[in-house]
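Hi L., both proteins are below.
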Amino acid sequence: MLPSKDGLEIIHSLRENNIRTPTIMLSTKGETKDKVSGFKSGADDYLPILAPRLTEKTIKRDIEQLKIENRVERIGSTGKKVIGK
């Protein structure tokens, strides 16, 4: 839990302000309804921290994948080639 807003509110606010930074929600809530709420709020991925496969390696892999997807999205929307960003 965060002090003033929960993660759903923060991501929703980011998306409303057209901020498309890739986000991964880590939560102790792992039920399907919680995951659906996370994705509906705008999260790119939702990982319950109780998942046995959640490791530092998994998190790093997911972050790298989101970076790649974000680069491809920017290239597609601008028609410009982006290198090293």
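That was the first. Here is the second:
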Amino acid sequence: MIGVREILLEGKISEAMSYIKNIFPTLFDERKELLKVFHAQQFIEYVRIKDFQNAIIYSQKYLIPYQKENIYCLDSRNVIQEVPIDVNFTENNTWY
């Protein structure tokens, strides 16, 4: 049986979120920070596979509530960095 770790390592963040919600239905409600990290990672996965249209749509739907908040991630040297979530759009919904 495949576990949530393997699903995450494959970059299937939405699938992992569904898996977790089935096992722990209230986890994301109780741990808002975890939900924010999962949404940020899903955005990163879209960018990683160069699916920019879905990355923009996803960020507009799920990351705007976290505008100007920070998340922690590893940089290329595996050093923890604090990074702001900054989803800025112009009036016609393009990046600026």
